[in-house]
Amino acid sequence: MKLISAGETAANTNMSVEAGEDLVRIGEMAKKYGVTLRTLRFYEDKGLLNPQRDGSTRLYTRRDKARLKLILLGRKVGFSLRDVKQMMDLYDPTGSNTKQLRLALDKSEKQLARLQKQRALIDDAINELSGSMSAVRQMLAERSVPQASAAS
Amino acid sequence: MKLISAGETAANTNMSVEAGEDLVRIGEMAKKYGVTLRTLRFYEDKGLLNPQRDGSTRLYTRRDKARLKLILLGRKVGFSLRDVKQMMDLYDPTGSNTKQLRLALDKSEKQLARLQKQRALIDDAINELSGSMSAVRQMLAERSVPQASAAS
DNA sequence: TATAGAATTGACGTAAACGTAAAAGGCGCA
DNA sequence: TGCGCCTTTTACGTTTACGTCAATTCTATA
Q1: Which residues of A touch B (CB under 8 A)?
Q2: How many CB atoms lie within 10 A of CB B130?
Q3: Any atom of strand D under 7 A from CB of A10?
Q4: Is the CB of B78 under 7 A from strand C?
Q5: Taking Cα atoms as reference points, which of B22, B74, B129, B19 lies closest to residue A125?
Q6: In B, what residues contact A, Cβ < 8 A?
Q7: What is the DSSP string of A71-113?
Q8: What is the rounded CA–CA span in Å between residue A3 and residue A17?
Q9: Which residue is nearest to nucleotide C16 (CA to C1')?
Q10: What is the C-alpha separation between A59 and A52, in angstroms, rounded?
């Protein structure tokens, strides 16, 4: 009574409701996108994913894959999962999604500002650290060669 | 029986042990360095500071101020408090502190590498985000002006 | 059928650096 | 003497995104 072949040799074994669905279990899904099982369950728990079930077994559809891609992109650019969810929740397959796009743009602008500020902070830190490092190197050099040269 | 005048008018009211000690209570210390009381107590709890006590009242010395400056510099460049403590614990006022300096340099090199990696990630994110933003703007533009122009 | 490999839920742990609340003691001042 | 402000200790809470068991069940395959 399995829905998909383990080695996924044949194209489609199930044609329950929709067209060629290409359902995937959690293990394969995780491997495919380089995340852990825990992560996928966590995202579901947070309402970001909604896989079908075969009994208790999760089956991820094409839609889940698209959503996961979005999640991962969002995380990459520094959005929180809450932000991602908020944006995804606005998705409406029947409309123009103008609201969703506007929200995404708004959040993106803010995030871009945050990223730029972060970069500035990091540059500061790098400079500060580099400065300290030369100072330390100096001190070490003085300690290792205390032969000649006056203190002044 | 107070050790310092509240408004710190006179130079030194106490000459208990050391020279002009310039002791400061937690409130003043916090204000002076822009941290909260909680932070100072937390640092003490973690073994990073060691103020004297007048009864139960903390009195911060010149030494504590120097240490706090170091802590804040360390945090600024991204060291953890553990790192900072590890480095400070090696301080020996009687020696050359070569070990301390070497450890600091070692940790600094690693931290510098981390910072540079972070900057690279942020730059990536900025680029990715900027790209998405233009795409979204495009979509919004198409939605707002659907008058003429073919779909292709 | 035995066994290994997936998968499930539940629940506590982690990391960092504090925030915040509570209850109480001490001090200067009017 | 009462008030307000400063300070103290204790201890739980916060945030985010999972990690890490643990106990159990299902499934496929040899």
Answers
A1: 73, 76-78, 96, 98, 101-102, 104-105, 108-109, 111-112, 115-116, 118-119, 122-126, 128-130, 132-133, 136-137, 139-140, 143
A2: 14
A3: no
A4: no
A5: B74
A6: 73, 76-78, 96, 98, 101-102, 104-105, 108-109, 111-112, 115-116, 118-119, 122-126, 128-130, 132-133, 136-137, 139-140, 143
A7: HHHHHHTT--HHHHHHHHTT--TTS--HHHHHHHHHHHHHHHH
A8: 13
A9: B80
A10: 5
Taking only the tens place, the pLDDT of each residue in B43-93 is 999 899 999 989 989 999 999 999 999 999 999 999 999 999 999 999 999
pLDDT tens profile B116-146: 999 999 999 999 999 999 999 999 999 877 6
Q: Position B46: which residue type?
A: K
B4-22 mean pLDDT:
43
Per-residue pLDDT band at B4 (split at 50, 70, 90): very low
Q: Is strand C less than 7 A from the beta carbon of B5?
A: no
Choose among B115, B21, B31: nearest CA to B59. Answer: B21
Residues 98-127 of B with CB under 7 A from strand D: none
Tell me which residues of chain A have a pLDDT lower than 70. 1-21, 146-152
Name residue, tokens 């990073």: B48
C-alpha to C-alpha distance for A23 and A35, rounded to whole angstroms: 18
Q: Does any strand C atom come closer than 7 Å to the Cβ of A60?
A: no
Torsion of CA B69, B70, B73, B78, to 10 degrees: -140
pLDDT score recorded for residue A1: 42
> Where on the phi/psi map is residue A6: left (φ > 0), alpha (ψ -120 to 50), or beta?
alpha
